[in-house]
């Protein structure tokens, strides 16, 4: 559909959508739009109080689940607390760190939060998902490189943007392998991918020097879009009829801004051998037997 916006969402009454990272930015706008069209929400958030305030603000029905994607114990506890089916599970949460840090389990924070965390939550909730899983990737994958010898940046100089790009590439590859496995099992659940383009969010805050972060946000305005428009690709991927593993993003120049449309990801995000490698890495490091 040309010039699709959140106003084109169907009536979602009676449907249950779960989303991570809904307390700010694109996730907040995604949840807001879903609630406005009648969806019941399950909001996974580190800040459960903030999520509860937003749920009340949206006027939507649903639940808040405290969940820290950088802590596998928190993820397991969160998943155990979710009862009932989910029509759609949206993996929206993302993180970027200005310096090398680690998750509770000792994984590099960006990879552990952006790839391993969603993968573990997905594994635990999959029996309850009825229709679709949406993965929020990033155009940063086009310039990403996965270092198979050192995926957690233990033996090389840490680079925040490179770590973020690699984590999103890993997540997108993991999603491809998930889709292949679901298809082999003849599951009714499909997997879709989306990216927000260049939306101004707190992910631009990668410097420890706030004036520099503010300058980056200001300089980005001419070719970026706001968080509402940034949520459109996710909403489109969550609700429209699409072939499995479609990749939805803005239709403007260099996919930075515009209306959502299916796009072609870089070949590095569709490599089946690399997808299996990421899958195996995640399985080992999330202690999944």
From TrEMBL:
Keywords noted in UniProt: Oxidoreductase
Disordered, as annotated region: 248-269
Matches recorded under InterPro entries: NAD(P)-bd_dom_sf, Sc_DH/Rdtase_CS, SDR_fam
GO molecular function, one term: oxidoreductase activity
SUPFAM superfamilies noted in UniProt: NAD(P)-binding Rossmann-fold domains
Family: Belongs to the short-chain dehydrogenases/reductases (SDR) family.
PANTHER family in alphabetical order: NAD(P)-BINDING ROSSMANN-FOLD SUPERFAMILY PROTEIN (PTHR24320:SF148), RETINOL DEHYDROGENASE (PTHR24320)
Name of the protein in its database record: Dehydrogenase
